[in-house]
Structure formats: structure tokens, C-alpha cells
Hints:
Blueprint: E1 5-8, E2 16-19, E3 26-30, E4 35-39, E5 54-61, E6 66-71, E7 85-86, E8 89-90, E9 108-114, E10 117-123, E11 130-136, E12 151-159, E13 166-175, E14 182-189, E15 192-199, E16 210-215, E17 220-223, H1 233-242, E18 264-273, E19 278-288, E20 291-293, E21 333-335, H2 337-341, H3 345-371, H4 377-387, E22 395-397, E23 403-405, E24 408-409, E25 414-415, H5 421-424, H6 429-433, H7 435-448, H8 475-492, H9 495-510, E26 533-534, E27 540-541, H10 546-565, H11 569-589, E28 615-616, E29 621-622, H12 623-627, E30 628-629, E31 634-635, E32 643-644, H13 649-657, H14 665-679, E33 680-681, E34 701-702, E35 705-706, H15 726-738, H16 742-755, H17 781-787, E36 790-792, E37 797-799, E38 813-819, E39 822-828, E40 832-840, E41 842-848, E42 859-865, E43 871-873, E44 880-882, E45 892-901, E46 906-912
Helix pairs in contact: 4-16, 7-8, 8-9, 8-10, 8-13, 9-10, 10-11, 10-13, 15-16, 15-17
Amino acid sequence: MHNAFVYRGAKTREISFPLGGIGTGCLGLAGTGRLIDWEIFNRPAKGSVNGFSHFAIKAETAAGELLDARVLHGDEPAPYHGSGRTQFGGFGFGVSRETMAGLPHFPKTEFRGAFPLAEVEFADPLFPCRFTLAAFNPFIPLQADDSSLPAAFFEFTVANPTDQTIAYTLAMTVKNPYGENAENSFQNHAGISQLKLRSLLPAADLKYGDLTLATDAADTSVQEYWYRGKWFDTLTVFWKDFIKPGPIANRTLPVRGNDAGNDHGTLAARISVAAGQTARVRFLLAWNNPNCSNYWNPPPAPKADDAEPAAGGCCGQGCNCGGKDNAAPPAPTWKNHYATRFADSAATAAYAFQNWDRLETATRQFQETLFASTLPRPVLDAVSANISILKTPTCLRLEDGSFYGWEGCGCDSGCCEGSCTHVWNYAYALPFLFPDLERSMRNLDYRHNLRDDGGMPFRLQLPLGRDRSTFRPCADGQFGGVIKVYRDWKISGDTAWLRTLWPGVKQSIAFAWAPTNEDQWDPERTGVLNGRQHHTLDMELFGPNSWLTGFYLGALKAGAEMAEACGEPDTAAEYRAIFARGRDWVDRNLFNGDYFFQKIDLANQAMLAPFAGSTAGYPPAPLLDTYWSPEHGELKYQVGDGCGIDQVVAQWHADLCGLGDLFDPAKTRSALTAIHRHNYKPSMRGFFNPCRLYCLNDEAGTTMFDWPEGKRKPMIPIPYAEETMHGFEYMAGSHLIRRGLVAKGLAMVKAVRDRYDGERRNPWNEIECGSNYARSMAAYALLNACSGFEFDRTRGMIGFAPARLPRAGTAAFACFWALDGAWGRVTVTGDTLRLEVLAGRLEVAELRLPATLKQPGRALGARLEDAAGERTPTAPQGTTISAGRRQHSRPVLNFTPTVVLTPGQTLCVVSAPPA
């Protein structure tokens, strides 16, 4: 597997590699080969197992003599005293039997991970086989449905190193998880052997569901039910059944009614492998748990007079509800999107096998292209590891296919509901890899989550159509949403889509000065936020600051361009005037010569007076009690003179989205340098952190805030001030790289990934407020920062300006890129750029090139190359060169007519002496 990250020994201890589709839940492949974290039942389930579910292998001679039999697990890592607290189990009772650690297994495993692909190699010189398990779920950019299959794909490679033919039996066992009123049944359909484990409850019941084990092997056997017994009988009898020579014997049993149930079923495939030869066997586990409900915050029961909608009218959210006050209440349950595509897990399995080769080829093409990027290993590690979040229970797809996200995953429930706007601000993977799903988030917010006055609560409520959250809008989420609409418009080039959202976007910008804005952000349209500003760190700031005002400035600048596109030049002019006032004020008043700060008098209690009658905090308390410390005579939860990691986060967004400068560029660079100088800690040893511990001992990390020597630190500063939260670290690191401070940015990125080494933490589960935390998808921005990626599909522009990265063994720069409609790779040498499309269709009217391609005495020439290397000159009469943007002169090629690239075609630009 190309460029995989390799884990051995103790470094496999914490691994749980997610296998599942977008919005389907997943199960985990452990570093030892175990199947763990069964999170396929519409909620997280960290640490869960499903009975004795496992893979096993046995080897027999051609004469039927058993040579060996093993469970396909490595050694269970220490400690061995047991964990948890249960009667007759847990701590003090030893390792759980469900680990299968008491059965013959392999002493060593090597785990190779390069998401979305994983491999486990099992090693024991005494076993007559060299054996590798490969696992994946399709991950194909721009193909959301094929990347949303509720299934885990497994392929076993069996190599016979002996001098005789050996028959190997591979068996997959899964417990029927549906307890009472469930059955196991086998069928072979169109050459696919399927063991289906299903509930017999009504199809609308929340507990209804089914699983299917399947293989396309030619020689199969099945044991529909394990022996039912007490004590250790079931596992004892199964192992004796399995190690008998030949096919495993079937057992059928009657369905049990009101019984907790412990029924397992086993599907086996038998292959004969000649001496020195290799064979492969494919297995699939598909699931269907269709019915969802809001278990965490259920809507109130409907009133009797809410049963029928009024004739005509609408709630104002574009949902045609017939009038909000009299609308029919939302249905209390909904289906997973995958359940609208497949009748059950058997249908998913059939689709998977019919399309396996295509799905795997496309997934491997993406994986190989991503991992062939000549980026530093910590960057590839961060990007690839965190796109896995899309395949975890953090993400849902609602019945119509729309995307919805938690912030992260608790142990057994989602953590922090509602596609939280200020957290998902940072998640840059979805808009580029699956842009239609990202746009669906905008659609949901502006359709269901916008108040009549333009304020937007930052947590979208489920089921759709219920009353909005009553909590106040947050400044970074409110204005970050505007920037995201702008970004998604530029990624897609779909101005018709923009126009459908524009009235709501316009209203959300104007909320800054709306009389109904209870937090009085900018009633005088100064371009600077004041008043009470809720934010992603869960409290409020009360003075001007670049962090939140930056989002406002970005929204104004993006809004002006969108207003022009929607035929409102007067609105655009108004936004630009407010932006200019705000930017000027920030540059003059919020920069201390080193970095941007919060302008506030911490001793001025009067700042709270306009809001004194309200509540704040968790749980809510009177605002004065929350934000004023009488003992210290000081405001609480503020930044003041501190150096914040997020002080120029809005400029990060602007750089990535093509908005240009929101702040003075020299001050932006100084602020970024200050963040590295003050907030980056080469070691946390000796550093005081009373908050959550995501970095400790000798680990390096970048803290949320720091108060350099001579700067006043509030007695009770902003929450989480001393933490190291990974999404913020990736944001700051990628911003440093984008602005040319490469070594500093890479140090921040490496610090995070060094902490996720497989021994201390799971490489495929970055934590913040829970597991698989969405903000860590800020790591995807590293791709665009390292490649200097620019785009504007509204006018066919794409561009690259690679950073000066350390690269070993090659003079070329290569990187994966993706936009709505196409993805591929770009390669840059000293005098040549090659833009290749590997999937989709890309129209190029303007190509922005690295400054290195503009050399004295040399001219730029462009040509198209097809997959066979045939060259076709582009229309030279329509090619011009003009100066690029920002500080450096960049060559730009304009193509008339537009160049259209399809798979297998490359646009090659060469700087060469004139003919």
C-alpha cells in the first residue's frame, strides 16, 4: 500500500480504524485485527464489542489433516487486569473473553494505514501461511452516494509458503445484535453467499435492523447458529466445530422470543492454494439500521391543535409548511439516507459485490494520488487521518441525503448537536471532497435555522421542521456561514444556487446592526463588533477584537461580491464602505506592534450593563454573576492583552477562499509569527494547564492563548486558554505555511501528529470535545496551503503557488487537488506545471502559475496531453500573460476558448526560450 504509515508492537495498542460510509456509522479495525467500536446502530459506541465477532483461519492438508487454526488477532495489549465496573466482570476479572485472547492467535501484527485503506499482516513462522487482511469502505471524491455505503469491505490475501497444497478456511463470525425476536438465515443469491442476521420487530420500530455477512467465494459453508448454552459453552462448542477438518457444519435453531439472545452465526470460505501460490478471498459486512430519532433532545409532544397545517402561508423558512403556528409537527423519527437507497443489508451487499472492483479501483486511485503528494509526512498524516472523521458517527445523512454533523462523539451518544456553525467553520475536507454535501449544510441552515430578523442559532435542531434553538447567535458562526456560502459558490461556480440563498445571507449580514440584535454587535455600522459576542469557546467577549470582528469583515467583503453577482450593486457598495471603516479601525486600534489583542478595560463593570438582565454560562446564571468577579474587581472570561491562536482566523478563511486581505498583510504575518513564538510549546512539562489535557509531559503543542511577559493575564481568563486543540493548531499551522512561514507551520502540525502515534492515542481519532472531532478537518487546509491552491469556478480560474517545502529525493512538487466537478493532481518542476484531471470535468479559462515559471528571456507555452502522451497545442492566439495578485508578480494564462480537461488529459505549461 503506497506510502502507508506502519505501526508495530505497542504502537498498535490504541488503533481503531473506522470502516463505514458517510452518515452510516462505522466499526473499528483494531491494530490487532479485532473488530471493535460497533458504532452502526445510529449512535456512537466507543469501546463496544459485538459478542465474539471475529475472523478466523484454519489450514488443512489435501488429505484433510488439520495443520493449525487461529483467530485472526494479534496479542491483546496490556494491561491485563480488566476494565470497567460490572458484576463478575471488569476490573479484577482479567481480560474480557470477547477479545478472544484466550484462543490460539498470532503473536505479531503489523498495521499499515493510509486512509481510506488499511492492512493488517499477521505473522507466526509456525503457521503455514503468510496472511494479510486489507480493509476499506469506498472513499471516492465527488461521489457521495458511493462513499456512503453502510458496509465494511475485507479482502484476505493468503500465500502458501510450503511445498504442498493446503486448503485454507476463512471464517467470519458475527453476533446477531438484535436480541429478542431475531433470526439468522443463509441464502446464496447470484453467486453471493449471505448470512443475514435480522430483527423480527416491525420495520418502523427504532430497534429494527439487520446485518449481512457475505462472500463471493465459490466454496462456502455456514453455521447459522452457534450452540446455545450456559457458562462458556457457546465458544467452547464453536471452536471444536471450527477445528474439525472440512467445511463447518451448519446448525439451525428455532427463533427465540423474549430472550436477551446471544446467537452468533458464522460464514466460511474454503480455498485450495498450491505450493508457493497466493489466493484472495473477499468478505463484506453490511448493515441496515434505518430508523433514527432524536434521543438526545427530543421535541415536545405535539398539541392537539397542531395536527393539521393551515391552508396556505409559510413559516418564512422556505419549507412550505403552511404556516409555522399551525404547521403539522415534524415526524419524531426519520430514516438514514442509505435506507432510502437499499431495502436492507442484503441489498447493500449485492450492490457492493456487483461494483466492488469499480469502487475499490476508484478508492485506490484517490488514495494513491493523495499519498503520492510530495508533502512532508506529518502533513499527509494529518490530512489523511482526519478525513476519516467523515466516516464516523460524527456525521449523519438525513433522509433526503442532506449532511448533518455533531461536533464529535461521546462514548455512547453524539457530543454537541446541530452541525454547530462555529465548529464546522474549521472543517475544510467536506467542501472540496464532497461539495454537494457541504452545500446541503448551507441549505439546511438558511432554510431551517435562520430567524426572521437574520439571527442564526448555531445548532440546527432535529428532526427538521421543529422549533429553532432559542440560544443566542454566535458571531463567528453567524458570519462564518456567510464566508462558507461564498466559498461554496466559488468551489461550485453555481450562481443560481447562490441566488436561492442570497436573501437569507443578506439578512444574516444585516443582523449585525438589526434593532432586534439583543447583543448589539454593530448598531452604528462601524465595521467593528462590540456588545456581547458569543463564540466557539462557549462564552462571550465584550470588547473589540480582531478574532470575531475579522469574521464580520470577511462576511462584509464576501457579501459585497455576492451582492454584485445577485444584481444588487447598492448593497455591495454599502458592505464595502462598512468593511473599509472596520478594517481601518482594527489596523489602527487592535495591533500592539506584535499581534492583535482585545481592547477592553477589565475593571469596567459597566460594559455588562446593557445585558445585565440576562443570563449566561453553563448552566445559565445571572450575567453579572457569570462575568464579574467582585473579589478581583475584574471581568471574567476575556482575553485582554493575550496572544490568541484565532486572532487572524478570518484571514485564514479569506486566504483559502480567495477573498484577499482583511487585515494589513504585514500585521497578519507578524501576528502569525507571534502565535508561534508565544503559543507554541516544544514541551508541556512545567506548563500550567487547568483545562482539558490533550497534550502533556514532553509532548509539544500550541496553546489557545498566551500572555507574554509584561502582558496582563486576566485572573479568570477565557475558557480553554491553556489547552491545545488540534483544529486550531492545524488552522494556525496551515496559515503560517500559506503566508510563507513554512518551518514554523510544519512544527505545529508535526507536534499534533506525534501525539497520535498509536500507543498514546488512536491515529484515526483526534479528540477535542469527544472523539472524531469535526474541527480537526481543518487539517485538509494543509493541502491547499502547501500547494498555494486558488480557485473560482464562476470564471473558470484555478491556480497553484507551491510553498517552499522540504522535499527529499525529488525536485518536483506534486499534490492532490479537488473542486466541485473534478479532482486530480498538479506537478510543478522548475520550468513546468502539469495540471491533470483524474476524475470529472474541469473548464479552465484562467490558470494562475507559480512565480518560478516567469523567468527572464523565457516564454510560456501551453499544450494538452492525453493519456497516451499525444500533444495538442492550445489556442495560442487566445493566450495572454498578466500580473498576479498580492505581493508577488505571478504569471497568469488566459485561455480563449476555455480549455476542457477530462480524465486522462493534462494541461502542460512550460517556460522555455522563445522559438
